[in-house]
Write a structure and sequence with these properties.
Largest sheet: 8 strands, mixed, barrel
Helix content: 40-55%
Strand content: 15-25%
Radius of gyration: 40 Å
Shape: elongated
Strand order of the largest sheet: 18-19-21-22-23-24-25-26
Number of strands: 27
Distance between the termini: 93 Å
């Protein structure tokens, strides 16, 4: 007996109802268009006969309708759009089905319902995505509001496409989009800025971001200095956008400049000091086409001026002398104060020795004139003068040495005398005999090392010891490096002497762990720039480490700041190679060389040793302390350890610690000691290396 047609229709309607209900539930939970399509496909599978193939697609609301909605070679040639229209919302349908399915009896209404349900699901998913994008954008903008650095995105024409809210503090305006970035850069820096951007776009710098300092000419009239970092997200695509981060470093650069100026100029007279003068000599020798001359001036009996009239009058005399020197030598040359009553003059591009002689004669006459001070005191103050030119030497060190020999001869001749260097002066100085004795010093055992502790200022623990070279000369007695190192460099002995020092110091240091309480201290060895330039120097150090068994982290190599040259690639390569091997590098006598604070960022370096003048200056004035504290803060910001040299009093100890120096060295803690006393020193309670040392070389 066949089923009642009405019952069959009722069961079929119920089945369709269940399918549409299940589809509605699946579509309500769908989070993407693929899930929507899957729910519709599953519903059609249940609504059509088992052997009936079907095809269904979703047309997104933003997709344009094409004739026939042809999907491609892997699908049927034509798909039929199933649309539902309402008076309020218009067309809702988004389904495309194959013609056979569209023509299946009884599926017309279910297909329309499925189309409407799918349309609602797609719209809901689209709105949710849009809301998430909106929230993300606002979160990014809120984050950018809190970031102090300005962030820009520029196109291939250097036009600003995006500027973070903080950019207005740099550029003095928030009206930045579509403006030319280079128009805000100081005119003299624009070519370099354009080159940097081109360099980053072409990817010639590799994956590293480009960096530079720019002066911004802001819309409000301010001129901040910013440190710019440029990042290319699509390397080697000149049309791609570039992201720039601009960090305001105006105050930092101003402090660096002030500190550098004070390091390079005499505070009393304003003249260049010994440091800057030495740099100017190097530059003059490298660029002058004529003769370069150095004239040294030593005021005669200046000590009696201070003793008789007081230091205020003495300072006024020094300032007057500096003005007279500047007037005589002219704008094309350099006058400097070396300290005390010593001055120097650099003559550039002199046509002949006679021109230099004319300047020394003018200086002698001008300085011999009485000086009338503001207090109506009349002071007579002549000068002894020694001069040398590049006619007898081709380097700055030799020029200064020859000028010193000439000055020594002038002093020996009496007050107010001038002398010009001649080769016999060097012979009379006894250099040949000294050179011969120095050549034999290694073999005859007259070279020796003493060690001076470097301590943690907070705990007094010894973190390292500096090896100090001494020469026990048979006639002159104990000689310090300043008395013979220049000679060793001139005659080529610095390399074998330096290797002997390294081997001796490293052998001694390897044994310290047996007597030290806690961790063994490191040994610090002074190395000449000439050694760093020697072929195979890093290999020599590596060989000595292996031979002595000393761990690399317990060796610190010190190079004097004045020996560092910005274009000395061989030195930089040797420094970098040694550091990669675990050896630490220190810059010694910082504050007496030519490098500015900002230059330390480029040096492969771990430790900065402040010249003893820093410790001495701490006790002179509050302003001096503030400047030194700024120096130490900047150095530590670069991630470098700071050692204050020349600490001789407890007051200097406390002040050095208060401005941020973690380590110190000087007579207050210990004088240099022979090797035999080091184990005894390290065995003393509180003297051995502890946590302070580990922070120095394990950070």
């Amino acid at each position: 007996m066949s089923a009642n047609p009405e019952e069959a229709c009722s069961r079929q309607a119920a089945a369709v109802h269940h399918v549409l209900r299940d589809a509605a539930a699946a579509l309500a939970a769908a989070t993407g268009t693929e899930a929507v399509l899957g729910a519709v496909d599953q519903a059609l599978t249940r609504l059509t006969p088992p052997d009936h193939p079907h095809e269904v697609r979703i047309r997104m609301p933003e997709d344009p309708a094409s004739p026939g909605d042809r999907p491609g070679p892997d699908h049927s040639p034509d798909l039929v759009p199933i649309e539902v229209r309402t008076a309020a919302a218009g067309p809702l349908g988004v389904l495309l089905v194959d013609p056979d399915t569209a023509a299946t009896p009884g599926l017309d209404l279910p297909l329309q319902i499925l189309s409407a349900q799918a349309a609602q699901a797609v719209e809901r998913i689209s709105l949710a995505d849009e809301l998430r994008r909106y929230r993300s954008l606002h979160e990014v903008e809120a984050l950018m509001e809190r970031i102090c650095d300005a962030v820009l995105i520029i196109d291939a024409d250097h036009r600003i496409r995006y500027a973070s809210p903080s950019a207005r503090t740099v550029f003095g305006t928030s009206a930045l989009p579509d403006r030319d970035l280079l128009a805000f850069v100081a005119a003299d820096q624009r070519p370099a800025a354009e080159f940097l951007l081109r360099h980053v776009r072409t990817g010639s710098g590799g994956t590293e971001p480009g960096r530079a300092d720019w002066t911004i000419e802001a819309a409000d009239g301010s001129t901040p200095t910013v440190e710019v970092t440029c990042t290319m997200h699509q390397p080697q695509d000149p049309a791609a956008a570039v992201t720039l981060t601009l960090h305001d470093v105006t105050a930092q650069r101003r402090l660096e400049h002030e500190l550098t100026e004070r390091m390079f100029h005499d505070a009393l007279t304003g003249l260049p000091n010994r440091v800057l003068f030495a740099e100017r000599i190097e530059h003059a020798i490298a660029t002058d086409r004529g003769l370069t001359a150095v004239i040294l001036v030593d005021l005669d009996d200046f000590g009696s001026v201070n003793d008789t009239f007081g230091h205020a009058v003495g300072d006024e005399v020094l300032r007057t002398v500096s003005r007279r020197l500047t007037d005589v030598v002219g704008a094309g040359n350099v006058a400097a104060r070396f300290g005390g009553d010593e001055f120097a003059v650099l003559i550039q591009n002199a046509a002949s020795p006679a021109d230099v002689a004319a300047v020394t004669t003018s200086l002698s006459r001008r300085l011999a004139e009485p000086i009338r001070t503001s207090g109506a005191t009349v002071v007579g103050c002549g000068a002894s003068i020694g001069a040398a030119t590049t006619a007898h030497t081709g380097d700055a060190h030799g020029l200064l040495r020859n000028a010193n020999l000439a000055l020594r001869a002038a002093r020996a001749a009496g007050a107010g005398q001038c002398r010009h260097f001649a080769p016999p002066m060097a012979d009379r100085a006894g250099q040949p005999q000294l050179r011969s004795a120095l050549a034999a010093a290694i073999d005859d055992g007259t070279l020796l090392l003493e060690y001076q502790p470097i301590v943690a200022l907070g705990t007094g623990r010894t973190v390292g010891l500096e090896a100090l070279l001494r020469w026990q000369h048979p006639d002159r007695g104990r000689m310090h490096p300043g008395e013979f190192i220049d000679l060793a460099e001139d005659c080529g002995l610095i390399v074998p002497i330096g290797e002997w020092v390294l081997a001796t110091a490293m052998t001694a240091a390897e044994l310290w762990h047996t007597t030290a309480r806690g961790g063994a201290p490191y040994v610090s060895v002074n190395v000449s720039a000439q050694q760093f330039r020697t072929d195979g120097f890093p290999d020599t150090v590596t060989h000595l480490l292996a031979a002595t068994g000393l761990p690399p982290h317990r060796l610190v190599l010190e190079i004097t700041e004045s020996q560092l040259l910005p274009d000395d690639d061989r030195v930089w390569e040797a420094l970098a190679l040694l550091r990669r091997g675990g050896v630490r590098i220190a810059i010694d006598d910082f504050g007496t060389g030519y490098s500015a604070l900002g230059y330390l960022r480029q040096i492969p370096l771990d430790i900065v040793k402040l010249d003893r003048l820093f410790a001495k200056g701490l006790t002179t004035s509050r302003r001096q302390r503030d400047l030194m504290q700024g120096t130490v803060t900047l150095i530590r910001t670069l991630g470098l350890d700071v050692v204050a040299e020349g600490i001789e009093t407890e007051h200097q100890h406390q002040l050095s610690a208060s401005i941020g120096c973690i380590y110190g060295q000087g007579y207050l803690f210990s004088r240099p000691m022979p090797e035999s006393q080091v184990p005894v020193w390290l065995g003393e309670p509180g003297a051995a290396a502890g946590d302070g040392f580990r922070s120095l070389y394990e950070q």
